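Example record

One chain of 441 residues, shown exactly as stored in the release files.
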Amino acid sequence: MRKRRRNGLGAYVLVLAIVIGTAAIATVVVGKNRRTLYSTTERFHRHIVSNAFDPISAAERGLLPTATSTHRGGAHAGVRAIVVHPGRIVLLAAGKPVRTIAMPRSPATLRAIVRSVRDPDWLSESHGIVTLRAAVIADRGSVLRVSAPLTREVVLTRRAGVFLGARHARLRLDGVDVRSGPVGTTDDRPFVVAQRSSTMVIRGSSFRDLGHDWNSSYGVTWASGSGGRVVDSRFANCYIAIYTDAAHDLLIRGNVLRRNTLYGIDPHSHSGHITVVGNLSEQNGRHGIIFSQDVTASLVRGNTARENHLNGIMMDASSTGNVITDNVVEHNHGDGVVLADSADNTVTSNRIRGNRVGILVRGANRQRLIRGNDVSGNALAAQGVTLTGNAVQDNGGEWEPERVAAIWFVAVPLTALLWWLTFRSRRSRDRRQRLRAAATA
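Predicted structure tokens for this chain:
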């Protein structure tokens, strides 16, 4: 009798185990929003330029831009520079002065330099368009202004050693369209650079087709203690639109950076106190905004980083003590906000949507604060960090309550139904057994 009861109970347990087990498996398999988390790993090569001369030093020596301390080469006749000093300009060819021209000590302008040099082989002007065929360098206390309406456009010829720069000086560009000329290769593309504690101020200007992969030659650069501001300007098809190297106290505000080869905004190499506010960085070849290699005490606020080929906003290589707040980071092919080996950053009140991973932390993961962010619609909400205190919804890998409820809405009645059918089946079998026993008695 006890054996029969145990056999009867076993049937119910089997039914329960089958249904509950199937529902549990379905919950795990179907109950989460699973999206494809594709890899963003790409092979990427950059020139190693640690032994390279800075562009201004190379131009003044007449060296080709690719010269390094170990492969210097000789002075090249095609490398020329117009160096602006207070009260005079000096023309250098192959590193040697060929002319010295007196100029008023008041701030120099490109138009005034054209009229002083009077040689179209060096630079020329027509209807507000100035074409440079040599580097123009504001040096050691001088001030160079390039402003509309006198100068509406600056064309930098694609040839070795052509750029617009400042060293220990002030350079201002206001309402000017700066672009490279049509002749030459991508590796010859000219650029704009401020070095050695210069101040470069840019307002309402545009920069197109500038820069290449070499030391401080990327697009528009502030380097070696320089600062200033760039506001309400546009950058397109540059190698790196805005780059810094050991710069400080730089304001980057209200700019549009679109379809640049690598990055839109790239503070780098021990830069600090960089303020990045209200910019649009989109459709760039890698990251929209990246701080890399000990960039500290800086602010990224109110920017939009979208549709970039890799990440939207990234802190990399010990970039610490920065604040990333009130940004829109959406629809990047890679991740939204990335903190890579960069501790003690604050990430608050950002809208992070439609990326691969919403917030990714790897390496040093001690963060001051990650709170109040809207993380939604990403293939995965986060990696390397929990998002307590953030609004997290509709990301891949999350439980879908409606799906789970539907599974168990079916499982519970099905369990009851199978239990009842098992009960009816056993009663019918027991009745048949009793009838057969009575018939044979």
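Notes: The mean pLDDT is 88.
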